[in-house]
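Teaching assistant here, posting this on the class forum so everyone can see the example we discussed in section. The complex has two components, and the goal was to see what a joint structure prediction looks like when all of them are supplied at once.
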Amino acid sequence: MNNTSPSIIALVGHPNVGKSVLFHRLTGAYVNVSNYPGTTVEVTRASARFDSALTLLDTPGVLALPSRSDDERATMRALLNESTRCLVQVGDAKNLRRTLTLTALLAELGVPMALALNMHDEAAARGVTVDIPALADELGIPVLATVATGGEGIGELTHSLSQARAPEVLLRYDDETEADIARVAAAIDNCAPHPRLAARGLAILYLGGDDEVANWLTKHSGEGFARLDALRTDALQRSDADLPALLARERTQAADALAASVIQRAVRSTPLLSQRVGQAVVHPVWGIPILLGVLFAVYEFVGVFGATTLVGLLEEDLFEGLLNPAFTHFVSVAVDIPWAQEMLVGQYGLWTMGMTYALALILPIVTTFFIAFGVLEDSGYLPRLTVIANRLFATIGLNGRAVLPMVLGLGCVTMATLTTRILHSPRERLITTFLLALAIPCSAQLGVVLGMLGGVSFTAVLIWALAMVGILLLAGFLAAKLIPGRRIPLVTELPPMRLPILGNVLKKTGGRLKWYLIEVIPLFLLGTFIMFALDRLGALPAIIEAGEPLVTGWLGLPKEASAAFVMGFLRRDFGATGLFAMAHDLSPIQAVVGMITITLFIPCFASLMMMVKEQGTKTALIMLGLIVPFAFFIGGLFNLILRAIW
Amino acid sequence: MSPKHEARLPLAFIPPGSEVCLAAFGEEIDPLQREQLTAYGLAESRPLKVLQQRPMTVILAEEVELALEHGVARHIWVARKDNENGS
């Protein structure tokens, strides 16, 4: 635990209320911000712009406390372990009841607070008016109306932090529950007093079944924990109803009462345009054509504009036409050693292969994908996609929520593997991680696939896409049968549809590109160097020779394609790019088989490491052991089928 | 069964466009999901508007749009709002 003097201001609140945008406004630091719940899965920290001695924490959104999900547990850990000077609860102004339900619990922690009622503009558009002075008076803390995306109310918020104080408690639970809370709070005060959080708040969380609080108490109360445990067991046995539900219900009622006294709602005769659009995209009839339209637009932007037009300009005109000849000439003059020349600008040269692949082939594709993804994120379309996809995902033991990491995986599988934390059960996370590793190509690979197969024919793209969807469903179906546990039905919030803000999309794209390139360029250079070393040592021809029965015999590819699979061990997209580079030597069937095999091939090294982090080494290695032979098996199967029918 | 109880219907059966009040959560909804629903603002006597029923039940609870699988919506009991009782 950090025991230095409190210098931390923590932003807490429900998912998708604008905490990360506010964090950016207050610190200048960029956190991935999206119009769907669950974007922030880890605590992020940065120095405050208005006082460099202060550190701001952006915490994952909490649907409710006590914590149940991974992101709620991360927030609870931050509350328990950080030297928090004050909390800024960020709430949705148009949904005051829900905001105050969380306030009712945070108030019990006894930490100074301020409340930022964000998205005030959206509330006003819906005819919702909050009497802010009255609310501030009732809570006894500063309450500010903010519009974080537009920067409104930010100055007032920072000025108000000096007046932050512990809020008035919003409710007294029923007498019996209050007695239980008092007994547990007294025991906490006795055996594990928290340096900042009030024992009463911890007692309510502990009685509500918060595992993080229980862990903290276990760690800090020593032998006293037995007494705490006995008190909780007694309380649970005594309560007629489910105690956690009872506590939550009483908080909700208190929040209802307070909200009703400070809110005014104008009668609106017609729904807003954003609501109509939001309903149309999940409409049973219009939803599917809209989805197809969205997919087509993404394909045109990423697959055609990014992977064909921009790659053509960068690779053929800039790199092959200008930079590579100039750099080759420079190296031939400046470097005397022949092997060093070859290492830099030869067939497996660090510049001519590594940097050219990374910057001329991958960068334009990844950039266009991240822009398209950013627009979809900010528009609010992605949560609605979970509704459309829910039935399909039910066939593989998941619910539509799993579509979010899957779609994010089309950008970067490593990021997406981390995002599986938004799923509610370990079983859902395991199945989704496996499917991400198996059949979801990242944007770089997707762009290469679309660029290569798009150049062959639309049929080739269609065969590849159908193969991937079919394998995804089949593997998911089998995984759902084999992995014990039950499917959790989908309940999800649909945030308002919004016009994406260009600046936000560009910032987000910039942040992701930076993350991506930092990961990609060193690995591409390392991969190129390994290829160069294998070639110089004479091992590459031997590997190509050894792989011939599999690559040429079973997959029906030229034997040189073995080199691409060697490259694919480092990154799938690096391997795919290797196949792309030899596209002119491949027949349409070979192109499709090569792309199917490399798409199913092992995920990149970084995402493998993320799998180890999220699922453990054993599980990650089992997945790897399943995926590699499966990729070659399916590739060969398609080779046989396509040769028979195409 | 009381007359009040007879007036309760599963949320999944309510036609789009109807306004109802939440009456109770069925026992079939597990405690965690019940907590989740409460956290979304669904509580007894709260007014709801049903926006659509396919492919999922979509409701408007105050200004929050929620999508619920039919497996959940079937076990949420609602009552017609007072002004619709006569219909």
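For the discussion questions: Chain A touches chain B at residues 63-64, 68, 94-95, 97-98, 101, 123, 126, 128, 242, 244-245, 248-249, 252-253, 256, 275, 278-279, 282-284, 287, 386-388, 390-391, 399, 488-496 (CB under 8 Å). The mean pLDDT of chain A is 87. Think about how each of these relates to the inputs above.
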